[in-house]
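Title: [Solved] HTH cro/C1-type domain-containing protein 3D structure

Original question kept below for reference.
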Amino acid sequence: MNAHDLALTGVGDSPPGADVVGANLRRVRQAGDLSLKAAAARTSVSSATLSRIENGLMSPTFDVMIRICEGFGISITDLVDPRPASTEILRIAEIPLGTGRRVETPQYRFEFLSEDRRGVPFLTLRADVLCRSMAEFGPMHAHAGWEQIIVQSGSIEVRIAQQAPRRLSVGDMLAFDSQLEHAVIAPAGKASILWIYAATGGV
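Solution (posted by the thread starter after getting help):
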């Protein structure tokens, strides 16, 4: 298990959304009649890590959530939504400011601004950037898809593969291939971004 993949938290001190993610992961795994070992092989996430996520003891990074979703063939919103997946084909999503589902990872605090499911080409989130340095962030992330970020408050530093760090301020935008290793930190502290993620085949 990679210590940087997940953040271990104390009982009763789980990050927002950790219990929901864990319950949904267990439901999907059991629906497929899969053991933790089989689920680990399918998702490339260790069985020990999956167990801790299911029990709300760890909060997965966005990178790990992507691997879980790809392994089980589900959307990110299926993983973080407290409601069971519906069979709706078409709907309109309206989310007032501050009311979106919240999920915290070791690197970011996400608020989901869309209710999209399978077949929709992108996912929109607001994210607070939690790490001020790469030492705090840990290994950079890489996964399938395309990302676009727009700084809403504060300033950030974006690291992409071996390229020079990019410093962005309010209103600045950057788009990049998610398969390139990447990380977003806030050296000055307290920064938020609008994050648009497009996965291959929809989210």
